[in-house]
Amino acid sequence: MIAIATISPQLTIPRLENGDKLTRREFERRYKAMPNLKKAELIEGIVYIVASPLRITNHGEPHADIIGWLSVYKAFTPNLQLGDNCTVRLDADNEPQPDALLRIRNGGQSTISEDGYVEGAPELIVEIAASTVSLDLHQKLNVYRRNQVQ
């Protein structure tokens, strides 16, 4: 009997880097391979890695206030789903991770994919733009408008 050695090449997935131009599929593949990366977004096919420290007065408190307000609204409004820093698959080139979102659970603009992600435009997206003003008020705003986020 002849033994045949099978050699399988070690495949490595490239790191997700700020400024990479990727498809959403490749972005997700690389993002999944980097479990220690806390927040990365794909906006107009470009990767943005957000690693800035978050200050309480500029981000933490406004974020908490928005989540509190949306939680109260949700408590009194049936059929809503509230998300905090959830990934949203808007279209082929955009996968933002907004600070908060509110969506109609059944019959709204968005759905939940089999793997648990929001797909399509939720009814409301909130961005606390303290450290990312340029990105939030230009590229993301255009993406949200084009995808009919209210």
From TrEMBL:
UniProt key word Hydrolase: yes
CDD domains: DUF820-like
UniProt GO MF annotations: endonuclease activity
Domain Putative restriction endonuclease stretches: 26-150
InterPro entries: Nuclease_put_TT1808 (IPR012296), Restrct_endonuc-II-like (IPR011335), Uma2 (IPR008538)
Superkingdom to which the source organism belongs: Bacteria
Gene3D superfamilies: tt1808, chain A
Record keywords, A-Z: Endonuclease, Hydrolase, Nuclease
Cross-referenced PANTHER family: SLL1072 PROTEIN, SLR1083 PROTEIN
Protein name per UniProt: Uma2 family endonuclease
Organism placement in taxonomy: Bacteria, Bacillati, Cyanobacteriota, Cyanophyceae, Oscillatoriophycideae
